[in-house]
Predict the 3D structure of the following.
Amino acid sequence: MTRAETNTVDTRAAVRLEEVTHVYGEGQTAVVALKNANWSFASGTFTAVMGPSGSGKTTLLQCAAGLLEPSSGSVYLGDTKLTGLPEKRLAMIRRERVGFVFQSFNLMPALTAAENITLPLRLAGRSADEDWMNAIVSRAGIADRLGHRPHELSGGQQQRVAICRALVTKPGILCADEPTGALDKASSRAVLSVLRETVNDLGQSMIMVTHDPVAAAYADQVLFLVDGEIVDVMDAPTPERVAGSLTGMVGD
Ligand SMILES: Nc1ncnc2c1ncn2[C@@H]1O[C@H](COP(=O)(O)OP(=O)(O)OP(=O)(O)O)[C@@H](O)[C@H]1O
């Protein structure tokens, strides 16, 4: 058995997938995007998800984040079973316990960086934890940009604001889908360093989908998907080893 088949139930998991399968559509047009995925994302670790285009990376991330109800199987966020919960309760859990970062920054243009960051708290009727705010903002290197609006910031700075917004509720898991996809090389490295530091220094748990072996090498481990199946896992990745593993996987 390979390691990808034997990662067993971990009660300290930030997120756990049990036999998760997801099918889009039905009948002749049905697409099996994820097949019997079993994985425990350990707390306080950073996992990258890689694989050819269409291999199911975003589907896995969305199931893990409670954004997509799998066709079968179960998803746990900490001790909470997400699968089967009513949408209203799921929406509350997503708002309070899951952080999202996307390729597009999705900041509110009329709000300052500080107002964007604290928006999820205001929506939840909570006030900011000053120590936590300071910790995330200083690690993101945007402490002197908090009064700026998004159009006054570079792409990399906007993404670092989006990361702070995703972290402000102290989520159980931060889910990032191609967070550096729209950034140049230098800005990408800065964003990845921020993600890495929040794991190292603040104990954040993180899952990141990426196509970039350099980005994946910032993670503690890399899951490889092919045709909706977890086919391999790599610890202590380097860009060269990740690129080597991807070579030969179909697609891309
Ligand atoms: N809403 C949808 N309806 C139908 N099929 C979908 C839908 N979303 C994704 N798919 C299909 O499911 C499969 C997995 O898609 P997914 O987006 O998870 O892959 P991915 O690895 O993230 O791809 P990429 O690297 O190109 O973003 C693909 O074959 C895709 O075409």
